Fold each of these.
Amino acid sequence: MIEKIIKIKDEIGFHARTSSLFAKQASAFQSEIFIEFNDKKGNGKSTLSLMTLGVKSQDVIKICANGTDEIKALETLEELIKNNFTT
Amino acid sequence: MGPAFLLNENYSLNIIKSKISSIESEIKQFKQALLIAQAKTLDLKQKMINSLSKEEIKIYDAHLEILKDPELEGKTIDFIKSNSCNADYAVHEVTAEYTEILNELGDPYISARADDIVMLSRMLILILQKKEENKITLNTPSIIVADSITTNQLSSIDKNLVLGIITSHGGPTDHVAILSKALGIPSLVGLAKSISKIKAGSLLIIDCAKAQLILNPSLFYVKKYDLLMLKEKHESSIQLKKSHNNVTTKSGTSIEINANIGSLDDAKKAKSFGADGIGLFRTELCFLNSEKFPNENCIIQFMNLF
């Protein structure tokens, strides 16, 4: 399993649209993806799960990936967040 | 302006936790219900596809996303297993928890999703209980008055009979508000308890420009708004006629006005509003909205309109 701590720059955070984009991207990978924030853990492949975390702009989250394509998964998802959720 | 049609609280669902004989069978029924709900949503999306813009039709994609969400499915199945209970109760409890958390975040866009979950939860429970939702049937053009109305209900009413919509709950970023706007239905949302004063059949006037609702208007207001609506209609038809004229600058230079389109309906609408031609044709939409690869005839059909 690998993990990375990352800060959300995007003005909005994990709201409806961005949660959806992240979940779609995460679902393309075989690995399990989790997001940890404020003692809460959410399934990275679930839009609902991500929205409930309440992650806002400037918040710091931890992305965890566990599986055969974990390195590629983490790289791609980190890139997505760094690019402010534009694909 | 028109008579009020009161949408009574959709009959309340009977959701009781009960013991079940087979957890496997309950889970199987739940998974089937998810598939049926997804199919129904796709049907509604198809029905509305010509009335809504690309952005607005995404409302249905958002519904589908919720119905396909792995955590929603996973948590409900876990609930059925650990409580050894019926699927409809499990759906109710799990979705209620999500709705509560999302509403607590205080973000209007996320709250709109919470409303979607409430509606979809009801849809799933009705499927599991093998019941049909009460359809809204209007006999005469009316203004619908309700605590809330779902996008699915709105999608299935005869649009020609809906003069307007008033709800006690809701806000301008809700999916229902977006849909009403797209369909050109005057609406006022979030009126709270004041709507409880409205009796069935009473005359109402919705003035969206002033965000006002007039209940049981006097003859003075009826005449005033009759005139206003006539004036608006007249101005609209003049604008429509003028739109077919040549567009020129004050110095006499002719300007071509072309439309950006993505479908045959867009092209027809553009022509009716006086477009001189097509500026940008999103041909990829011919592919996305079709079950088969479109051929050249698809393109020729459009060109022949102009």
Amino acid sequence: MKRTPLYDLHAALGAKMVPFAGYEMPVHYPLGVLKEHLHTRAKAGLFDVSHMGQAVLVSDDGRYETVARALEALVPADVLGLKPGRQRYSQLTNPGGGIIDDLMITRPLEAARAGTLYLVVNAARKEVDFEHIAASLPKGVRLEPEPDRALIAVQGPLAKDIMARFSPDATRLNFMAACTTSLRSFACRVSRSGYTGEDGFEISLAGVDAVPLARLLLAEEGIEPIGLGARDSLRLEAGLCLYGHDIDETTSPVEAALAWSIQKRRREEGGFPGWDRIRSELAHGPKRLRVGIRPDGRAPAREGTEILSPSGVPIGRITSGGFGPTVNGPVAMGYVPASLAARDTAVSLLVRGKPLPGRIVDLPFVPNRYFRP
Amino acid sequence: MALERFTRDHEYVRIDGDVAVVGITRHAAEQLGDVVFVEVPEAGRKLKAGEAAGVVESVKAASDVFSPVGGEVIEANGELTANPQWVNEEPEGKAWFFKVRIADRSEIDKLLDRTAYEAFLKESA
């Protein structure tokens, strides 16, 4: 079992550790999942996401176009059109239009890093992803995984005030923007992004600096360490996909309601794996669609729960479901036929053999509060 | 004084005459974390020993509550379904799930007393 650079800090903070994607990770701290979730939405939370895969894509010629074109052969996002200091969410697609993984792509702001892109992929997929990317790159572009870096997220309405005491540069970033800056004496790559639906930051830094920086951040007023349990309920309320659950090698970005992440030029030109299927789904609509579902009662409908039409015909399955602490009730996501995906469509959820009523709702369950002035 | 018994599934049962009060132990409540949903059986339902009779769900997971003894459900804790957080507050007090009229008292002998249950917890820790 692997450990992140913050392992000793989790232990010192009294975390309950569980295996996750090959790592021993904190599922919650003494506060507990429910309070950690609510604290993040009310104030600020610190998350260790160092298990995620970080890598740099580098072109030998130092030109942005070279590295951007290399990545565009693997993802449906417009990477060429990304401005310096901006990031995009995208997916590594397979030839059948399924999703190998979802990832964040950042174009560095600094001219000295012109021929590079920073990538962050899921922990459970990093070996698969890095092998896939490395095997697909043209000559003159290489992938450099960064296994020794840590990644810390600071999320919540107080995140910007806390970050302001470390780096004024960071708080000038808008949502999905990034820069290189020093947090106190630590050299960091900071982006205004996250996985909670709240305003917040993700901080990439050398693993050896992770504990000292995390301790300084946690010494601030209003910030608590938050485990994977609350990270999951926060992202579910925010309507964000979890790889291996809501998206996988069979689901296309269009089915997953991620078509917004495929920019116009790529829709028209293609040039990424699975374009045939994705183009067809964009033109004619997908067969099935990821939707938000609210069970009417109090009983959570968990992953794997069968979704039925009100007359009892099976139409799909829940891919993520549980209790939403901010919603104060059960929330779920799942796939249903596109013809049954309209808001307010009644469904039935087969929980412990009993059909419970629910309905299709818009995502997210909790309005996001990204910093977009 | 009621007789206290426990199961390896972390239910407790308090036995007074032929009535058993069933709930989940403090250890189980702590393991589950914040409880957000509880389901209790309907009064009148006939249960076998070991049958799934209720449900307890935390933000983390869902678990069945098994009836440690067989018999008829004579009362369910309706207030608990409206206040699932009681399971964390007072698991072995106001957060009882249901009461059963015991059909076969010999089933009680198969359950653990507190000393044996605590030894079981230590073993499985």
